[in-house]
Amino acid sequence: MNARIHLKNMNFYGYHGHLAEENTLGQRFMVDLVMTLDVAEAVRTDSLHHTVDYTQVFALCRDVVEQDRVKLLETLANDIIDRILAKFARVQQVDITIKKPSVPVPGALDYVALETSKTRA
């Protein structure tokens, strides 16, 4: 039985971007994450050990966004996905959206977002 665990609108402060000001001042990033996994054993046992502890996933996302420094949202998303797939063997697929509300564009917008996904090989 497959399920999708969602972590929506996680907010972190990081130093990512192409411009020097983004790397110096930092800014807020919002992350939406969906993990697909087989939960049949978790349902049968009612045990957290047979699923994914989303508090650990949240902490992993926070560490990547707040500790690492990259220029592209594409790189940031890939780093988060790769670390989730490496740490949580039960996860079959990760879908991620990273929103960057403070973008240096000459106009008004809510945010720029990158959406991507990766399936375990």
Question: Main traits of this protein?
Answer:
single chain, 121 residues, alpha+beta, GTP Cyclohydrolase I, domain 2, 4-stranded antiparallel sheet, 4 strands, elongated
Question: Would you spell out the secondary-structure blueprint of this structure?
Answer:
Blueprint (H helix, E strand, L loop, with lengths): L1 E13 L5 H6 L1 E12 L1 H6 L8 H14 L5 H15 L3 E10 L11 E8 L2
Antiparallel strand pairs: 1-2, 2-3, 3-4
Could you write a compact summary of the structure shown?
The chain is built from four helices and four strands, in the order βαβαααββ.
How would you describe this protein?
This protein has 121 residues and is α+β, with helices and mostly antiparallel strands. It has one domain: GTP Cyclohydrolase I, domain 2, CATH 3.30.1130. It has helices spanning 20-25, 40-45, 54-67, 73-87, and strands at 2-14, 27-38, 91-100, 112-119. The chain has a 4-stranded antiparallel β-sheet. 20% of the residues are buried. The mean pLDDT is 96.
The count of β-strands is: 4
CATH topology label = GTP Cyclohydrolase I, domain 2
The side-by-side strand order for the widest beta sheet comes to 1-2-3-4
Q: Please give the count of helices.
A: 4
H/E element order: EHEHHHEE
- Global mean pLDDT: 96
CATH architecture label: 2-Layer Sandwich
Instruction: Specify the CATH class.
Output: Alpha Beta
Distance between the termini: 19 Å
Which of globular, elongated, flat, extended, rod-shaped describes the shape?
elongated
Largest sheet entry = 4 strands, antiparallel
- Note the quaternary state here: single chain
Q: What is the CATH homologous superfamily assignment?
A: GTP cyclohydrolase I, C-terminal domain/NADPH-dependent 7-cyano-7-deazaguanine reductase, N-terminal domain
Query: Considering DSSP H and I runs of 4 or more, what fraction of the residues is helical?
Result: 25-40%
As residue ranges, the low-confidence spans are none
Radius of gyration: 16 Å
* Total domains: 1
Structural class: alpha+beta
Percentage of residues in DSSP E strands:
35-45%
